């Protein structure tokens, strides 16, 4: 039997005496909790999606100088004025990749036959870049996609941003205050789909009784900085409409923060549906594009947003 990192951590934890108070047990517990939070083991993350649908064109382009500042562009042959999905992977701000199977496979299979272009984005990771720098990368990547959409046959005015887990926090932040994109020469986009972020109110996350190292590693311990990375505190009247999907299976109750953020968006007159799903954190991502009511709900939000004129966010 092949041991995954999560199973290995559990076995190691079980081998430590229950009375032990040392740092090893606490590190193992923290690592296990972080794995549960991220919802994807390193083994799963290593399965890079390589199969491209017949007739699909794939190209990898850079939007910055760092090797991780790159994106994969999947497009139908002879795409012209195509709507676009821009996907930002998760991984606890430390791991993950734009080509992971759970990130792109079902999305490419679902949206490319409908004439969409799917773009999957990488960004710098911990420890090289904290979450603040990662948000800057996502904003730069989105502005780059908008500027170059036409060269791939895409329509920048019909663009949906999407992200999962840590990527969901990054796209929610970008959508709450789109000036980080417009200041780079980009413009408002049609809407954003946030796939199971538990950190839409970062101050609430960072002031819990027990804060996972997952968060302190990404956001630091200085309360003065937390507002910079909190979608709720960065919310502006220019915010892009959001659909928030949250798992009802998680012990940390991400739907509570989704409800709070949704109410704040709706007070600004922005569409902000909250889709509560009886799925795991990983399934929330991997099952996007699988035929059924879940994908139908996301499709309905996207169709409604793409039906709106650019800039007419209600």
UniProtKB/TrEMBL annotation:
The keyword Signal applies. Keywords: Hydrolase, Signal. Pfam families: BD-FAE. GO terms for molecular function: hydrolase activity. SUPFAM superfamilies: alpha/beta-Hydrolases. The keyword Isomerase does not apply. It comes from the Bacteria. Residues 1-20 form the signal peptide. Residues 71-176 form the BD-FAE-like domain. This is Carboxylesterase type B. It comes from Asticcacaulis excentricus (strain ATCC 15261 / DSM 4724 / KCTC 12464 / NCIMB 9791 / VKM B-1370 / CB 48).
């Amino acid at each position: 039997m092949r041991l995954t990192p999560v199973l290995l951590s559990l076995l190691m934890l079980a081998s430590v005496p229950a009375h032990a108070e040392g740092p090893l047990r606490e590190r193992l517990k923290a690592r296990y909790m972080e794995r549960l939070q991220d919802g994807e083991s390193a083994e799963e993350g290593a399965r890079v999606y390589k199969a491209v649908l017949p007739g699909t064109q794939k190209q990898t382009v850079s939007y910055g100088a760092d090797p991780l500042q790159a994106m994969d562009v999947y497009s139908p042959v002879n795409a012209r004025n195509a709507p676009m999905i821009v996907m930002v992977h998760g991984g606890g701000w430390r791991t993950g990749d734009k080509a992971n199977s759970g990130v792109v496979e079902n999305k490419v299979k679902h949206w490319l036959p409908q004439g969409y272009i799917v773009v999957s984005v990488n960004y710098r990771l911990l420890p090289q870049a904290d979450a603040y720098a990662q948000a800057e990368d996502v904003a730069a990547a989105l502005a780059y996609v908008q500027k170059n959409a036409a060269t791939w046959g895409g329509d920048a005015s019909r663009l949906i941003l999407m992200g999962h887990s840590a990527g969901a926090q990054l796209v929610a932040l970008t959508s709450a205050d789109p000036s980080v994109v417009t200041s780079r020469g980009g413009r408002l986009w049609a809407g954003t789909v946030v796939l199971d972020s538990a950190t839409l109110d970062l101050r609430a996350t960072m002031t819990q009784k027990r804060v996972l190292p997952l968060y302190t590693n990404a956001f630091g311990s200085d309360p003065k900085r937390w507002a910079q990375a909190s979608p709720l505190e960065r919310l502006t009247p220019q915010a892009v409409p959001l659909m928030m999907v949250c798992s009802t299976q998680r012990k940390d109750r991400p739907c509570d923060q989704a409800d709070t953020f949704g109410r704040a968006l709706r007070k600004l007159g922005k569409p902000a549906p909250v889709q509560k799903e009886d799925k795991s954190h990983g399934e929330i991502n991997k099952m996007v594009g699988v035929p059924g009511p879940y994908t139908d709900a996301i499709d309905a939000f996207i169709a409604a947003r793409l039906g709106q004129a650019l800039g007419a966010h209600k």
